[in-house]
Design goal:
Layout: E1 5-12, H1 17-35, E2 40-48, E3 51-59, H2 68-82, E4 85-86, E5 89-90, E6 95-102, H3 105-111, E7 127-134, H4 143-161, E8 167-180, E9 183-196, H5 202-216, E10 228-230, H6 240-243, E11 246-247, H7 252-255, H8 276-293, E12 299-306, E13 315-319, H9 328-338, H10 343-350, H11 384-387
Parallel strand pairs: 3-6, 9-10
Antiparallel strand pairs: 1-8, 2-3, 2-11, 4-5, 7-12, 8-9, 12-13
Helix pairs in contact: 1-2, 4-5, 8-10
Amino acid sequence: MLRNYEFTSESVSEGHPDKVCDQISDGIVDLFLSRDPTAKVAVETLTTTNRVVLAGEVRTNNGSIITDEEMVETARRVVKRIGYEQDGFHWEKMDVSCYVHDQSPEIAQGVEEGQGLYTEEGAGDQGIMFGFATNETPEMMPAPLIYSHQILKRLAELRHSGERPEFEPDAKSQVTLKYENGKPVGVNAVVVSTQHKADVKLVDLRELVRPVVQQVLPEGWFPPEDRFYVNPTGRFVIGGPDGDAGLTGRKIIVDTYGGAAPHGGGAFSGKDPSKVDRSAAYATRFLAKNVVAAGLAERCVIQVSYAIGVAQPLSLYVDTFGTGKAPEAEIARALREAFDLSPRGIRTHLGLQAPIYEPSAAYGHFGREPGEEGSFSWERTDMAKTLAGL
């Protein structure tokens, strides 16, 4: 494994057009799960200038009816929470079109328990999913991504509180770290591009962003002045869906590990937990994090694969990048014994049938604090003691 190198990760804010879509889609997932924990949801969102389009397939199993009007109101609520009240994108004035329809019964017969070729509930799709953890940060996440998320989250907090009304919702950040012997030792460059009010001068904007970056980075890690970039292309007044169209699922590297680990074939947002694109990615993150928390490895990546309609994964792969304190085959065996990786097993262990997903759709699905209401349950480390005996 390469020991001395530079590595860069980026993040985008809650007001980025693609993230607006992710949050709307997950808001609709939560709407359905709040009425029916077994609801099947696959909803995509598109945004552009003062327009939102919803499309997808849904099914409830307990007689609950979610109307188009409720989905439209969910979209407006999410956009209002983010803070869009601009001429080109306004939560109240935007046109919202809903093209969500009933799920195909041919899909249902493959994934519902007691139907199709298998009696056990099967995976909602085929595919590969990855989970990753590293001990380079307390969150057990890659440091460049954590710092990129935290910069944007802090900008949003200052905007929402009214302390910095100069900031607008759309923003991106990028952090380049220097690694020695596989550990981050400093920052080589930081890039922040943030939408701003029209009367803000770029020289002033740089000084508004500076203390945020200083607060997030470890002491002494602020980059050289010529490597600290704020809005390097110039003015950034027209932003959000008015400046660039957005789609659900286009920021999957931001959602996961910032490019420091492999990614599976599917996005997360807009999908209920029967879709293993989402639930199995959460499960593999949970397992990888517990492997690292147990002291079995400094870094760990886990891959699983599924066939649609089949309950148990077809494969389980573990790689500790040469840092393992136990053979990968033994770790894989222990994980299989300790955790049921069927869709039902994952949902039950992690409590994924609750309406917990909208908060995950901005600032990363991983490296977050588990909430009392069940959110980010895949970030717990309660399996570490079980694995530590290997």
